[in-house]
């Protein structure tokens, strides 16, 4: 029995180290984080950290990859779903992305760390784009193009830059990172207004609207 408990604890150890590393990196930033502090948070020796991770750089990369994995999988699954019309899909997809980007504290902190350490970890940034931002933008472009072909989405320059549809969620994310609870904001209302703004810019215009100067 004791051997089974030790084996289970050993198997769980890398995950515990990554969780502790996340807390330390968030609290102190990459440069100021020390492996001995990560070890102390887990309750192990510094040598245990080195048993699983070669150095602090590898620990940071592994932490970002592992803690980002659930979001990447959710985004992949949602992108594969379908709705009857392009506007319906865009609304539900943007709601999903809003929740990930703007309202998930861990997701916000991972993004903050990626932005802060972009110059130090360019390959990790490229990997994040490949696994998350790239598929999201491609899916949005596909929906916009298909909707335009069906007459559900008007011809617009935004078809060239689907990234613009992420702007409200990203701006809210930055707001939350800067102000947190000190400047509360109604995120549900923010989302509804953002969707209204975006879809009104994408939906076909009526004849009277097209004739307006």
UniProtKB/TrEMBL annotation:
The keyword Chaperone does not apply. SUPFAM superfamilies: Homeodomain-like, Tetracyclin repressor-like, C-terminal domain. Keywords: DNA-binding, Transcription, Transcription regulation. GO terms for molecular function: DNA-binding transcription factor activity; transcription cis-regulatory region binding. This is Transcriptional regulator. Residues 11-71 form the HTH tetR-type domain. PROSITE patterns: HTH_TETR_2. The keyword Membrane does not apply. Pfam families: TetR_C_11, TetR_N. It comes from Microvirga lotononidis. Residues 34-53 bind DNA.
